[in-house]
Amino acid sequence: MKPTTPPRTFRVKSFGCQMNVYDGERMAEMLAQKGITPAADGEDADLVVLNTCHIREKAAEKIYSDIGRLTKGKTQKKAPMIAVAGCVAQAEGEEIMARAPAVSMVVGPQAYHRLPEMLDRAVAGERSTDTDMPAIAKFAALPERRKIGPAAFLTVQEGCDKFCTYCVVPYTRGAEISRPYSDLVAEARKLVEAGAKEITLLGQNVSAWSGENDKGHAVGLAGLIRDLAKVDGLARIRYTTSHPADMDDALIAAHGEVDKLMPFLHLPVQAGSDRVLRAMNRSHTVESYLRLLERFRAARPDLALSGDFIVGFPGETDAEFEETLSLVGEVAYAQAFSFKYSPRPGTPAATMDDQVAREVMDVRLQRLQAALNRDQHAFNEASVGRTCEVLVERKGKHPGQWLGKSPWLQSVWFEGDVAIGDLVEVDLLEAGPNSLRASVREGALSLA
Description:
Blueprint: E1 9-14, H1 18-33, E2 37-38, E3 47-52, H2 59-71, E4 81-86, H3 87-99, E5 103-107, H4 115-123, E6 128-130, H5 138-141, E7 151-155, E8 157-158, H6 169-172, E9 177-178, H7 181-193, E10 198-202, E11 210-212, E12 218-220, H8 221-228, E13 236-240, H9 249-257, E14 264-266, H10 274-279, H11 286-299, E15 304-311, H12 318-331, E16 335-340, H13 358-383, E17 387-395, E18 401-405, E19 411-415, E20 423-431, E21 435-446
Parallel strand pairs: 1-2, 1-3, 3-4, 4-5, 5-6, 7-10, 10-13, 14-15, 15-16, 19-21
Antiparallel strand pairs: 8-9, 11-12, 17-18, 17-20, 18-19, 20-21
């Protein structure tokens, strides 16, 4: 590469999970601290960061397609500088550099705090790759949180030790590690000072978080939540994503006792067949999962449940898929995510016998999503008539219209004299499959 002019504008394009969204926000903050400004909507950026997710089907090939679109028909002088970050970068760093000469930097999810110095080298004409996996050293190097929106993410834990046979996370994000308690409380306070009313605690396996509090006592996620609930100005707490193996009595109790902990639980099950769960190396059974949900619902009766499902895992039979549909019918999820199985290189499932035909997976996914959509709409319909607080997050499409989230993570829209960041008491009036219409209660504005 030849030396080039330092970029003046940037765009971070994040794919996949909420942890990637958090990482993308932090990379944007680092670039802004370096004096580079976000590109305006509709304008080309001088620097584009593709923050990748390896969970996506054919994730690597889609990144090469994005690189092609960014450079097609452009001279080297007019093409943007490109950085590839995230889990695909971690898994295929050297391959990306070899296949895509237009890429200046490849940086993994544990090393992106070194993006500014990599950028300096790129400006000097040097391509670089950094897929080192230091133990959460990046967080100490990230800039202080400043102005943000009313709902913010806070990564508390990274990595996973569960080694589900279909999953690349242990290889791209590393072993489970928890950020220190004091760092998290300090960052949460900074987020609130910067405008956050709601914080979602993030982790590949967030329920595995553990640490020592300011009194030197060992605490788990429930203890962290209880202490964060004491932060002045913080109105709502959520967390995701959890593993059934790490949901303890203290966390269940917190759902019934901590008012700021929202009545929403995302707890992936993946399949409704015990044989398939064993093949996935999931440690729970259908029965243990259902009993766990019963305990959470007993602690918080209005709890909304969410989950993840994979259809077409190698060897899954028609009868085993029907067991998944039966589980869905029994739980009645308020929300859920569902995917067709696709092999990830290096994972045990990728080489298993009896890979399910694509057309079979297509039919199964359509049936599963129809059932999940039915239950989501039913949950929304059952919410009509409720009064609840909505956190105003953004303007709607029409003048005077506002959008926000209910305590149960439903999208709610309404009209009124409010502002972004307000907590507003509303009556839920009408349910659609993906959102609810509401009206603001007279004199119900809360600035909590």
